[in-house]
Every structure is written in C-alpha cells, then in structure tokens.
Amino acid sequence: MNTKNIFNLIRRYFIESGRKDITTFILIVLIITLASFLSVSGSISDSLMLFLLFLMGVLYAGRIFNIFQPSGRAIHYLTIPASNIEKTIANGFLVYIYYNILLIIALLLGNFLGGMAHKLLDPEYHYIFYMPFSLDNLTLTLVFESIFLFGSIYFKQHAALKTFLVIFAFFLFFIILDTTLVGSYFIRSNPDSIKEAEDIFNNINGNLIEYTVSILAFIFFNFMTWLRLRETEA
C-alpha cells in the first residue's frame, strides 16, 4: 500500500469535485442559518441537526462510487495507478472523515449565524454554543454510511435509492419476524421465564453490545466494498 497513491486519489477528488462540495457547504450553511433565525428559540433542534447530518452523510456515501455508472469515467477510474485497497481507503477517508467534518462545521456555523441574527432582533436572547452530536449518533451515522458506501459500488444506477429500499425491506422483514416468532414465544412462555430473560438482558452491558455490533458491521461493509471493487477491477 502506497500512501502517495492514496493522497493522489484524494487530491484528484478535490480537483474534480471541490467546487461542488463548496457550493453544497454554502447552501447548507444558508439553509441552517435561515432555519435557526426563523425558529422560536433562535436555534434549530438537536434532532433536526442530527437528521441532516445522517441524511447528507449517507446520500454522499451512496454516490461516492458513481464513477461506475455507465460512462467512460469508469474505465478511466479503473486505469488509475492505485490498488483497490488504496481506492477503498481514499473513498473511506472522504466519506467518514472529510464529509462528516464538513457537514458538522456547516451545521454548527449555520446554527450559530442564525442564533446571532436572532439575537439582533431579541437582545434578551442568549445564544449558547453547544455540540448536539453524541458518540451514539456518530456511530450510527458511520455504520449506515458504510452500508451506503457498499451500495454505491454494488448498484450501477440509483445506488442511494436502491440501498435505502434494501435497508427498508430488511427492517420490515425483521419487524415481521420479531412480532411473529419472538412474540409468539413470549406469549406461550410462563411469566417466570420471561422475568428471568429480562433480568439476564438487563445485566448485560447494552452499550457494549451496541458498539460491538456497530464496529463489526462497519468492518464488514467496508470489507465488502473492497471485495466488490476488487471484483470490478478483475
């Protein structure tokens, strides 16, 4: 693995898409500034900021490999002197680090500017700068970004939409399975066994399980992305 090749891939991205990202950054700042200014409290809600971070992040991840859509760009990308692992790392850096930082700065800056503008109209309003992003939310975002990153190279066209539909179908199937099989099991079980199962579950560190599953899912989908890229280049 050559770090110089990874750097050249990232530099190539900024040369080709840097202006588009700057435009997106400015639009997000303006939209959040307006939303913050028009809100009653002078600051948009935490849930809205987290939703925008999640939505923009997964949509970006779902389009990062759009060079494989039917066009001459795919052939050009495949001939770049870099290994598939280097290309995977470069795109992972853009999705997980670069764009998330860009989004967080845009959201916080827009919220701050909107709050300051609100303060001009209401001098009694006191704006408090804060970070509404928690480790849980960022972990969830990274996991879904890894899923959409894999979807962006697996599907040739409309990758983000198709990935979303697959995720929706999976969760729908899981809900149906949970309500039928698991639900019927607990109905037929006696109250003592249910209480015992609840006690065992409550004694388990829920956060540890959540983070472990998230890390494994993150690694798995990045590995699948690398395999798919390797298969495409073969």
Characterise this structure:
- It is a single chain.
- The protein has 234 residues and is mainly α.
- The protein has one domain (3-233).
- The protein has 8 helices and no strands.
- It has helices at residues 3-38, 46-61, 72-78, 84-121, 135-154, 159-188, 191-203, 206-233.
- Helix 4 packs across helix 8.
- The longest helix has 38 residues, at 84-121.
- 24% of the residues are buried.
Number of helices: 8
Give the N-terminus to C-terminus distance in angstroms: 18 Å
The quaternary state of the protein chains shown equals single chain
Beta fraction of the residues? under 5%
Flag low-confidence runs: none
Task: Please tally the β strands and state the result.
Answer: 0
Task: Please bin the fraction of helical residues.
Answer: over 70%
* Shape designation: globular
* SSE string, helices as H and strands as E: HHHHHHHH
What's the alpha carbon Rg, rounded to whole Å?
A: 22 Å
In a nutshell, what does this entry contain?
With 234 residues, this protein is mostly helical. The protein has helices spanning 3-38, 46-61, 72-78, 84-121, 135-154, 159-188, 191-203, 206-233. The radius of gyration is 22 Å and the shape is globular.
SSE inventory with pairings:
Layout (H helix, E strand, L loop, with lengths): L2 H36 L7 H16 L10 H7 L5 H38 L13 H20 L4 H30 L2 H13 L2 H28 L1
List keywords for this structure.
8 helices, 234 residues, mainly alpha, globular
